[in-house]
Amino acid sequence: MRRLLPVLTVVAALIVIWYAAAVALNGQWTRDQAARAGVEAGFGDILRDAFVQERPKLPAPHQVAAEFWRSTFVEEATGRRGIVRSGSLSNRSLIYHGLVTLSAAALGFAIGAGFGILLAVGIVHNRAMDASVMPWAIASQTVPILAIAPMIIVVLASVGVTGLVPKAVISAYLSFFPVVVGMVKGLRSPDPMQLDLMRTWGASGAQIFLRLRLPASVPYLFASMKVGAAAALVGAIVGELPVQEGGLGARLLAGSYYGQTVQIWAALMAAALLAAAIVGAIGAAERATLSRMGFGR
Amino acid sequence: MRALSARPGRWQGLAAGALGLALVALGGGAGGWPAALGLIMAAAAGGAVVGQQPGRVARWGALGVAAAALALAAARIAGAAVPGGGAGLWAGVAGVWLGAWMLVALVAEEAAGRRGAWRVLAPAAFGITLLWLWEVAVAGLGVPQAILPAPSAIGAKMAAAADVLWIDFVQTIVKGALSGYAMGAGAAVAVAVAVDRSPFLQRGLLPVGNFVAALPIVGIAPILVMWFGFDWQSKAAVVVVMVFFPVLVNTLAGLQATDRAGRDLMATWSASYWQALWKLRLPAAMPFVFNGLKIATTLALIGAIVAEFFGSPIKGMGFRISTEVGRLQLDMVWAEIAVAALAGSAFYGLVAAMERRVTFWHPSQRGRAGGPQRR
Question: Which CATH topology does B158-358 take?
Fold first, then answer.
């Protein structure tokens, strides 16, 4: 309760702001309607209309939640293509699209994080790599990969790579960098006194790495893995924009094509929940690991 | 200093030399390969000698000779690379790669503990090697221009379209990304400091901020473009939202990073809240703040460019990329990407330089500023 109450307060405040913004932004529609009918729209009319429009500028939270509920559980339970009637997940439900996105993001994150850790170990232990690779790892992230993701998907498709892998490539590209930066910082976090102590004990390079640098880097690793996993999810979603093979990105684009703002926001909500689940899972692993390693306060 | 037995770059040099020797002995292949491989051998021999030279002049001389020989070989291979170049081409590529690795290792060893131009040499050599590899791969594999243009073609396009690139740069980076970055990061630090007084709000905002920082915020770009119009204001708005939460979360976490002893010491000195904040907690938070600021630099660029896909005036890097992809003018697309990468690197470098000035006391920065004791 002590931890939950502040969070709930902040969330409640955000929802209140959201409703107020919905009234402010959606009021124009009511005023336009009234102007066409030749009458004056009162504040009561605006308030009444703000939350029931079919294509509002900013849908109210309950509209988004209702759409989310309808396109997940209701669709699966009662829809013709839902899991209850057909035995497989409906391609109209956000659960199906969320799983498509999740699998691409997970594959990309695994590749990216693994590559990132290896690169960080190399950078910390090899002077040539430290001097030459790190500046380019940084420069690699200034390439706006999200901006050229559609191009990458199309180019990879033209050489015959389709399906999960192109999306995972983008996810990996986005997620390796936070891991490299965090791990390099973490592996360098033991201060010179600790390193000197290890040398005093005659520790070999491998021993210094395994007993001092690696344990010291674990908090940094988890912190950067959270960032990396979230980035991988973003990469997967953007990678889904050009190929309509399912996924939350495809839903976002479909929603924006047909002006279905409520559907866009429902897809965003699904993406948000997915991100929360991933980051929450890594956070739980972080707490368990760090407390076992004695990092707790 | 490192023991002499672990001479950096030695095995790479020897391997490059052996490769060259073997291929020359086997006849190498057609065209310019044998000559190029001979040059690689010379470079490798020069490099392998370097590690054993105690004198500075001899060492640098050998380094220079090796670099020149490698560059000649690389130019020769790039000039002669055609589709179906055969084993000779790829052996030459492998040889130059190994030779360049050796050079980077040697240069990095020389640069350790030095400042200025020396520190740029190794990354520059590595980058040039990568570009060369790209050039040769595009030529040697016969990759069509519409899939991946060669660096030389991109460079030519950049020179030819410099005025357009400059207009796009001002529109997207200066107006969209930088203004949004300043507003978003400034607001985030201000909010974090304001919230810091209330542990209640802090406990509430940290998880929520973490949550929002993990969201695919790019998804709201079409919505913000709808709200703020097509010009740079909507791009700045996307950047503000993208930048705000990473910086907020990092600053909040940083403000909690002081240890008990430090806080107790401040209390012992009966420091006021603001004194403790200014003298102890803000400085202690700086590594975290800069972590957030560095992450935010790339986010700002991405946000500004991606937002342009959903509507923009007829200038801007995102606009140019999306229209030129449609026209299959990939050299122009890559020219924009190169500008974005250069601008982003400069931006990141600026923030990192500020970080070094501000957080010189942090273990990850100590010993980086110079001196032979690097790790």
Answer: MetI-like fold (1.10.3720)
